[in-house]
Design a protein that fits this description.
Strand 1 (29-30), helix 2 (36-41) and strand 2 (48-49) form a beta-alpha-beta unit. This protein has 177 residues and is mainly α. The model has no long low-confidence stretch (mean pLDDT 80). Helix 5 packs antiparallel against helix 6. The protein has a two-stranded parallel sheet. The protein has helices spanning 2-20, 36-41, 64-90, 101-107, 114-129, 135-150, 152-158, 160-166, 169-176; strands at residues 29-30, 48-49. The protein folds into two domains: 2-49, no CATH class; 64-176, no CATH class.
Length: 177
């Protein structure tokens, strides 16, 4: 009942203002602090006040300096892991060697892309896991992946003992020689 009375009273006040020739202030938007005299009078008004918007700072916005090199390293590691996994999966005596003559004819042309598929899936998983959402970070993963693929022979020549641990001595000898 009190709410209905207050609503009716504000409507009556508005009609009185309009009849007197005063401006209709219903729904006006006022920007800035309110007047102290009006605030002290205690009378409810129908003004809408816009609040000053706070600056929204994205978390990690300036961290490309750190995350782009990390993304490149992760891309290179994914390419290396894809090469090692395809070597151990599909070599003779590996986990999944292709031995049937019919299967060799069908699968053999595509085995050269196995390291790209395995490494690419790993790169997608790590990109999603670490939240590399920006374009620069995704391109850094791709750049690291490509750098490792194109520089694989140089990496084997530079670090033969590490590659012998992940691949085999024969693989390192064939890559160097």
């Amino acid at each position: 009942m009190a709410t209905a009375r207050a609503t009716h009273q504000s409507f009556e006040d508005r009609l009185n203002r309009i009849n007197k020739g005063a401006p209709n202030t219903m729904g006006e938007v006022h920007i800035g602090p309110r007047d102290e005299e009006k605030a002290r009078s205690g009378k409810a008004t129908n003004t809408v006040r816009l609040k000053a918007k706070k600056k929204k700072v994205k978390i990690g916005e300036g961290s490309n300096l750190v995350l782009v090199p990390v993304a490149m390293v992760i891309g290179a590691m994914c390419a290396f892991a894809g090469q090692a996994a395809s070597f151990h999966f599909f070599q003779d005596g590996g986990l999944m060697p292709v031995t049937l003559p019919e299967a060799v004819a069908v699968v053999e042309p595509y085995l050269i892309y196995a390291h790209l598929v395995i490494g690419g899936i790993l790169a997608l998983i790590f990109t999603w896991t670490f939240g590399f959402n920006g374009l620069f970070r995704k391109l850094a993963v791709v750049a690291g992946f490509g750098a490792m693929l194109f520089g694989h022979v140089q990496m084997v020549e530079q670090f033969p003992a590490i590659h012998a641990n992940f691949f085999s001595e024969a693989y390192v000898a064939a890559a160097i020689g």
